[in-house]
Fold each of these.
Amino acid sequence: IGDQTQKKKKKTPTICHIHCYGVCWYKGSVNVCVEAFLQVGQHTWERCDTAAALLRRGCPSHRLEDPRGSAVLVKNRNVTFRSGRRRGGRGGRVTQLQPQTVRLHLRPGEPQSFEVRFRRVEDYPVDLYYLMDLSFSMEDDLPNVKKLGADLMEEMRNVTSDFRMGFGAFVDKTVMPFISVAKDMLENPCKRTEPWPCSPPFTYRHILSLTADGGVFARLVGGQRVSGNLDWPEGGMDALMQAAVCEEQIGWRNVTRLLVFSTDAGFHFAGDGKLGGVVLPNDGLCHLQGNEYTRGNSQDYPSVGHIAETLRRKNIQTIFAVTEDVAHLYEGLRSIFPKCAVGTLSNNSHNILQIIVEAYNALTSEVVMENSKLPPGYHISYASRCEDGGPGPGGRGRRCSGISVGDEVSFNVSITAPPCAAASRGPLRVVIKPQGYSEEVEVLLSPICECSCQKDMIPHSPSCSHGNGSLECGACRCKEGRVGTFCECVKEEADEATDSRLCRRDNSSEVCSGHGECVCGRCVCQKGGQKPQRLYYGPFCECSDRSCGQHRGLQCAGHGRCVCGECVCLPAFGGAACECPLGSESCLSADGQICGGRGECRCGACICRDERFQGRTCELCPSCPDVCAAHRGCVLCRAFSLGLSPEECGRRCAHLNLTLVGHPGVLATAAPSAGLHRCMEVDTEGCRVHFALSAGEKEPSASAAPFVCQECPSGPNVMLITAVLSGSVVVLGVALLLLWKLLTSLHDRREFARFQSELERRRWNRVNNPIYRSAITTVVNPKYKEH
């Protein structure tokens, strides 16, 4: 808010008029006061604030400029319940979308909302154009498509009484490498004559305009012959573009438009035409002459995005009836094309009727809102209210599904304008419409960026230095030659160099200490404005009541006030930030002493003399010995002559009066009193010494120790210890012998078992003694056989 260039231009800005020197833009709940209620030195943008703040600062309520946004329904024709055709009516105008025109007066940052209603009208007219791939692989599909006309007419009578159908076909561009350009192949690309030759190739051919006569559809489709091409993808995108843009030739009406695309192959898209030397981009215009597409060999295929935008603009809903092997390609188009459905075609297209009917029901049962491009900086949001009463699923509130005939859904549309610096001037237009429908809502946007107070300008106002300027929207527009907030200075006399020198403190480089402006050789300090807590004053604006020290987040600790950068404290406080109480109440300990007698009270807190003591009043000493430990040495030396030497014991422990008792239980009979401590310590001989003493609270010194008792443990029983040790040795020895005997027995058993096993393996038969050698020797005469 505000325009900082006014300091350089030395001109008085006119507030709330965006074409003048300074502006106060409307944003959110910020308002402007058109009353001349500013003081000298305050900027004109300081009139912009919330209404409550301006009223507190003295702006009259009737002078607040506080325009509010609004939504005005310019055309609001009610939605139609039925088209009236089924019962013989003439139909008339059918309205499915309400309202038709809305004007929004938008205050920047403040959204304006309106409701859009949509009703699916009964018996709404439908136009369907069947676009078929007539390449050779689709030959077995033609008979079923021929029967489609009568069957689809019969089926669609259940939906609408006004249904029309059309037919078109496509193959591919008639250039290499998409088709063969040999003469015989151009005449008959299938190279056959029976049962009939193929049709010459073509890019796209419009065969039948939209008609309600199903017999004409069957006759013309039945007379078609398939053609052929070389590559696998087809030129369907060329045909799809022409079927969308040639509205007059196709016969499209301003009703529900369906386009059925039937093929068993993929498609060429932008850039593929370069393979055939076709480099000119598709212009998206109609080029049908004699129902033939004439630019197929001179313009490239259209891009997918180009076709999607054309279908969206022409309100055409697409149904892809494709075979299973290419269905995944066309499924990818669903996220790009508006209102698109994909059905899996059988090998001979016998299920084409089912695909069309199911796709039509799916497309028409869903409403998706869309809008044209918004002006820069504007924001739009949707909140749907569907038939079930709840918000619509997904789509950021733009979508409603499962809508039947006669159902009504609504969408709450909210539009927010940007700040006026980014907002376009003049009326703007946005179109909101459901995808696939021709009806739309025209939204006229009028940003509120100017004040209405300029018409109340007061020329030669006395508020502007006795008529030296005009009071316009609460600010002075000075006459030529006058400057200043209230036109109080003559421009020729207010030399900038002189003024600047007079407004510098001690030859400082900053004018008015950086907290004001030099007006007519005098510092005008910053006051009020958007940060009224930062006030500056003084001859050179050197003083501020917000620059003092803080304590715990509070200036002057909340115990004083800031005067020209220094804290002036209340009588009971001191310090640079008034953080120190001057009294000692916060330092009193439980016994009424200051810091327990162990420290000094400074700035409301105790400073302990002994570093071992701590706490709010020096009452804690974690490292100090307790009363019992402090008197252990004196008790031992006085009662049992242990520890200290007699001389030192007499000097340090003369104050103790001791009484020896025979049993510790006697200590329990001591009368309880304040400071009484019952102690147990261990002497140098290991005996436990029990004693009771009374000690003061200030220091650990005992005034009396009336009872002392010593318990010494009895000596060890030598006989018992000897007997236990001897018995343990004997038991351990016997246990070791038994363990040794057990281990040796197990070892011997294993060795004997192994020995027996070896004997069994070495036993033999007496007839076949392995060391026996026969005494008979047999000699064979080698010459025996010769005789």
Note: Confidence is low (pLDDT under 50) at residues 1-28, 696-706.
Amino acid sequence: IESYMAAPALQQPSFLLANLKVDSTTKPFLQRCQELVKVIDDYPAKELHLIFPWLVESVFGSLDGVIMGWNLQFLQARSNEYNIVMDFLDPSGPMMKLVYKLQAEEYKYEIPVSFLPGPVKASIQEGVLPDCPLFHNKLQFPLSGLQTLSLALNPFEYYMFIFASSLITPKNYPLGQHVSSLDNAYFVLVDTYLKYFLPTEGSVPPSPFADNRGSVSPPAPRAPSVPFAGYGIHSTSLLKRHISHQPSVTADPAAQEIWRSEALLQVFVEIWLHHYSLEMYQKLQSPQVKETFTPTEEHVLVVRLLVKHLHAFSCSLKPEQVCSSPSAHSHASPLEEFKRVVVQRFVQQKLYVFLQHCFGHWPLDASFRAVLETWLSYIQPWRYTGENTNPQTDQNKGVPEKWGLFVQENLLMYTKLFQGFLNRVVRIDLVNVKNALMVFRVAKVFAQPNLSEMIQKGEQLFLEPEHVLHHRQHRVFLTPSHGGSFLSARQSVVTDGVFRVKSHVYGLEGQDCQYKQMFGTELRGAVLKLIQIIAQARQTAKRISDHSAEVAANNSFMSWFGMGSPDLNYTFNGGEVDDTGECVKKTHEFLERSLDYLCLIFRLNAGQLSQLMATLGSGQDDGNSRQLPDCVQGENGLILTDLGRMQIINGLRRFEIEYQGDPELQPIRSYENAVLVRLFFKISSLVNERFGGHMEVLCSRPDFLGRLGRHYLASPEVMADGRQRSPETRRTAERNRRPRLSLRTLASYRTLLMLLFLYLFGVLFSFGPISSTLLILTGGFLYGLFITLFGDKLKSQ
């Protein structure tokens, strides 16, 4: 990449760059940083210009992932190098000083179009001008020998582009390295840049260098003839016209105050969010659509950090600017004007498509929590007003009425994504405490007082007939969702609530979308189904909790001797391994409160809920939980249906899992002595091998002796109980059904303890070891004789 990153072609070789490259492989990290600081301070911009692309790549890594950089995602606060890195890359630090030094000289640096996000790259390659002003007036024809287009970015844009791209660039990290906590250097640096360039208090500090020659003017205003869609409508010659005849833009002095803020936000949004085309989303809303980009959990967490800060930034708008008239806007400072439109203008559309993709394609596991919290952060801007409120008090107080406009302008963020969440949650294991927590979080957020009413009002506005249909297409162009720099033209505020909601929905979902109401009949049925699943999972959690308590009670000191339950064939599905004890109690609590919140959101009274529970109870008794899951017969056996999968996931039904091999070869249990098990197995094997034929003859007799022999010699597996089990081979089945002598019971600590008590009891009555042994054998024989004579009668009774 480096060979074509430095903009001016045919540069003279830089001895400074060569020396720095050598030092980067030989000198310690601290010394390198100290020397870089000295170089930045002492050398002129002409020399620094030649090392800038290399230095940025050596810090953040190259766009193709070959150069690893400083691995900021793995640099934790406890590391010795952490403070050095943070000081060097601080917004007021040496690296940014270098950026400003080059900025004042109007240097440009090229980024190949091939490294842009997919939709932007496709748009440019098709000859269509991207909507984002970041790409306006920067596209260049390839130089001689290059077959790709490129963007010419100023130093600040280039620095932020490489910094943002390092989060999503695939890299071959060393084995064993995993991006972990949120206190790594990259995450903290993102937070630092956001707070510095998008301040909630005060203004952006000015550049330490005069940049009159390098002033970045706001992008050209969008022409009225440019369609709203922005993709696939322009002619293929548009790009060449745009490059050949770039409009002359006069710098707006007011825009200079915040050009860095706008540039930083545009870079972050384009690189982190704009990976899915809105046009493709509208045309092909299908899980079968394959996207080349898959976000990671860390990527989503950084997006959430961006969302949270933008809400705080927007909420810091002065009160008189929030609902003031358009004439008042003309007197607002550029930063205040920026705060007023930042969320709707820059973030809403791309974040919506990004979240929709995540909701439809993210794995069905607990890592979805990152996506979920990003969504919940966006739809609750009132949490970031800077007011110190008690969360519990705020929950009871409800959502202030002033946020009704935000809900209307972001209606799909609430309704459509809630439907996407419903589609996911019915396919996951709600007995898992992490999944139960996610359901609880969503239910708690939507149950905030006033919020459901605001959503309903927005849906009612959307369903209202349009007052002036032929005005809509013209007015959509004036909405603040697309266009050039927001400072390029003062746009009238849309006061028509009906039009506001319709333009939002049609702008994101397309003119032909079929909107499903969140509080409509169809979605209400899906919610009732979810309530039943939650209730079923709650019952399963209670059964697991009761079973765990019973096992814990039995696992006393005596269970070491086999007094506890020895049945290792019994398994209780429906929860993960650690979903016991306190975890199951939390699961039950989360599900219980989720039911309460859902009933509050969708206005289900106690009678309706009781009816649902009664319907559930009539079909799910304890005996039913022992039945097989719903299956259909296939060529190779039973095949689970969707209903059967849901039954297994939520622990409603299960397959009987039992050991069906040779009973003598079962794993040694905790209540057995390993030495004795192996010893008795060898003895019984010798006896069975020598007298096996005689045993078969004895057990095959129909008389009393045959019955007595079957009692002592027949394998317990012969007794079929009619339950459906997995198939076994004929040879295995025949071997397991042969009569044989088994001495494994004598290796049990329980049996040994009983024998010890019997011998001690014999000592009390002056019986010797031989006499006690004969009495024990006689008692065992008489017990078998009694069972043989009267066992059938006892079973019938």
Note: The longest helix spans residues 521-554.
Amino acid sequence: VTANVNHFNSYFDYPDSSALSSSMSIDKLLPALLECFGIILCGYVAGRANIITPTQAKGLGNFVSKFALPALLFKNMVLLDFGNVIWPFLWSILIAKVSVFFIVCVLTLIVASPESRYSKAGLFSIFATQSNDFALGYPIVEALYQSTYPEYLQYIYLVAPVSLMLLNPIGFAFCEIQKWKNQGNRQQRKLLIMGLVVLQVLKNPIVFMVVIGIIAHFALHQTIPPFMAEFVDGLANSFGGAALFYLGLSMVGQLGKLTRSTVVTLILLITAKLLLMPLICKDMVDLLDNSNTSALNHSSLSNYAFLYGVFPTAPSVAIYAVYYNAELEVVTSGMVISTFLSAPIMYVSAWLLTMRWMDPQLLMNSLQNVSFNISIVSLVALVWTITVMFLSKKFKRLPHMFTVNLFLAQFLTCFGMILWNFVVKEDNFIGQVLTFTLLCTSLYSTYVWPGLIALSLVLMKSFEDVKVSPSLFVIAGWGVPVLVTAVLLISGEKMPDTIDSAFFYGKPQMICTTVVVALSILLGGSSLVCLNRGSWAHNDQIQEENAAEDLVTEVEPENQTLFEPLFFAIIIRFSISNLLPPSGQCGNRCESTDCLLVQVEELQQVADRQVPRHVLLCLLLTVSLLANLSSCLWLLLNPVPGRLYLELQFFCAVANYGQGFLSFALFGLDKHLIILPFKKRLYSLWYGKKQEEQTDLPDEVRMTCTQFTKYHKDQCFHDIVKKRRCGKRTKVDCFLGCELVEWLQQVGLAQDHGEAVLYGTRLEQGGVLQHIKQEHSFQDSRLYYLNQDRNMSCQMIIHVQ
């Protein structure tokens, strides 16, 4: 068998493959998952349909957390058999949880703002380490190991107190410190704060009953007295279904609280919970469980540790967030997302671990086909994205110039993989080496560019007056991959008959990949941390908006200088002749291409640096680099990587050759080039005929327009309108959309931002408002609109934020 086949065969190279596959029962896993998530779905439907109100759901939650779960823990603590416990496994899980807790806590303290630093550190650390062990984890472990390793079930009750009694109090202490810092009078002593934390932990019924259960274990000799056995059993048995149902109830409306500002935090927390935690748990068992003489049992414990690490976050973390009134949006949304992401990970992992045998050649072909198919689709997405970047002319600005280089590297990576799929099947050494050179260089370039883009954002933030040199970044982004590939080609030795491009040069290629990926993670991660320590993205946007506002806002005559130098580069882009449209007033539609308002709109479309999108792109690609680094280290440190490594390798293939999907999602749907024209066309098709007659409009649109025109328009005009100029002698009364949104909420016409935007959309649909060039519908952006029915000397223009 070829070397590469032997590599894949090592996934299943265990002392007794049939015995290993029988150590878990996959047949019961799918019914267990369907049972758990079916009950969760029932709870969600009941909450969404308001069959059970939030107040009633809170009562069910109190029953689960204060009666059912404490009784369950007490029962199992009494009956626990410490003689069959493999203690190195427990120490491994303990070290893994403490490690993740420490990593999340330290990073949060470094990155978070001072006004909420400690509360975030406490809650986020608890989020990443407290698993839903009993409601969701126990049924899955029972389905997998009840018939083979029933003693594994009791580890759930031994591991859970690690979070409840050791880590959670540390998180609570951070939250109490934040409360103390936020108080005006800091008279409470630190000793008093620690006392409050200890008291809160002891008052927790779960912790209290664990302690009582351990005492009763030795006092009652592992036996529950008959007079109380039925009572304890009744409460304990009620936990399973009630807890899952309550989990579904607690998910209602949580994703709606997710905002753009919490997306980055959420991605990092879910990565720590579903990727970092299981990998560390497995590695710790591999390192510490040396006393286990059975290789089969050692492998089974290692796989069990990985599955345990994938368990999602417990709903009780949301209760902590409510209690401390901190980070509720992140915690609740993360709980929902991690719960549903964990299901496919657990199922695929268990499926791989229970396979009796699979042809290694079939595995290689499957991995190659996955990479090939994803590359084709990703290639199409990248062609679209690169075309949009050039048509929108954003490629001329920083950091989009570097982003285009990243897209080009992704394009070449997909193209190289498509070529590799055909060349590798032919006996053409020169063709294989040339194709590998293209594929390896472009793939390494996709590893390097995220860190360079993040670094460029930091430099533009720290040195706003210093121009970032694009040539140095381009040389680094392409030169480093070329250099590494050249060293690999010169010093490496081709593996015989391999079809996997990741192992074309064997171990030297793994080492090169590890070095490149690790350095890129270090550069990108440190740059993102520095970038997050300020609000530069928001301030940069405010600066651009204020500059554009100064360009069109009327000033007092004694202070007015029509063409005074502006502090932003907007003025440079306009010649004096372009700023002088014909005198007069804007009509129902501005026909002049020299209208200053239109020029400001066009400039703002190009001037947006899209810093949040670049940060999100760099963050997601850094997470995929973390998976690649784990894959390389796993293979280098483990001579027999095991079956779970196959799952990680398939994930890395999707992450490497599917980067085009991320690029397309973040930059391929340009708002002004794609989305707005599409909405305009769709709007004209849907409402084109209806706008001819007011009576054809929907009732809610007509009522909104009538209400606003009759009762609120004059007051709105009086409160927020300012004079702005659109030329040398032309001035208009207008106001910003953000001011309109705020005003609508202040007077009670809208309850929140979304309702305010919807209100403005109805005004535009009813003909009360109209874009100055009739090119856009009402939207949440800096566009100017005319008021169509106000009888005054100059038209009213709405400027939407």
Note: The longest strand covers residues 731-736.
